TrEMBL record:
Entries under InterPro entries matching the protein: A-crystallin/Hsp20_dom (IPR002068), HSP20-like_chaperone (IPR008978), Small_HSP (IPR031107)
Protein name: Hsp20/alpha crystallin family protein
Annotated family: Belongs to the small heat shock protein (HSP20) family.
Organism encoding this protein: Thermobifida halotolerans
Amino acid sequence: MALPVTRRRERLIPTQWNPFPEFEELYDRMGRLLESTLGEPAASGTMMWTPLADVSEGEDSYIVEVEVPGLAKDDIDIQVSGNELVISGETRQQEREGVRTHRRMRRYGQFEYRTLLPGDIDPEGVQARLDNGVLTVTAPKSDQGKPRRVAISQD
């Protein structure tokens, strides 16, 4: 059984269409995508990139795990200000004489990872450990940020 064909006679396309706002939005989106992929220019003019990281929360602390393969602890700087955690450093490319590079996939140069932790932390108790290219920063929650049980008294 064949269905009858129906045709519309009205035009669905407006007569005055301006494509420029859509092109500008597409241009902005592509710029943001390239910045997130390649990094953003640092003050020195080189590209700064952001390492991959996970942020999780336990009962007593926040845990931030950042991928920094090939770095030593002296190459990494960790700063805490309020509930903001800033991890920065620089990866350097090894110079090999007489070797021609065909493909470069790893990132080199300055990096920075910034995150605002969801609650107040105790900055004096922040600890960091570097193991197999993963930096683990443990930031204990402050007593103000921890929930506490309130007892109800009877009259």
